[in-house]
Amino acid sequence: MIVALGGRPLTGKTTLARALAEAMPGILLDKVALQRVLFPELATASPELNDRLYEWLLQAAAWQLDSQPGTVIVLDGRPLTRRRDVLSLRRFAAGIGHALHIVECVCPGMVAAQRGKQTDGYEALAGRLDEPAELIPEPKIVVDTLLPPEHCLKLALSKIAEDKASGCSEAEKRSRLWAVRDG
Fold it and tell me: In the chain, how many H helices and how many E strands?
């Protein structure tokens, strides 16, 4: 199974990805961590390097899933705010025969900006907060990261389990939006 985190910058993707990988348990594949290991001198990566790093994450995911059946991969590599990235990821998962769960982290822009001021490298991310983003197409699980982190984790895990247990087809999943919020 692959769980991919998506959402705008500073919406809590990495925080939730780490928590999911620990709780499921799963292997966290983090593009920023890979960049720091391979290219420690780079503050930000070019679009071409970002694409290459993501390809390497997907290759690592495919290898892990092939060599260790039943492994859970948690991908923290792309914001998935471009439809083509989501469709490409879905083709990848289908091509290797594994279920894909996309978890979209959302929060108000002002909250993301406030979080960013407490983050290393905020200057590089600040300009991206106002960039246009496409909606992540369904099926997806939407987590409002204004909720406490432990609540976000619990709700995401329950929706992943519910989705997995239901055995819904891709078409059925598209007809539903998993809104993970209180109320």
Answer: 8, 6
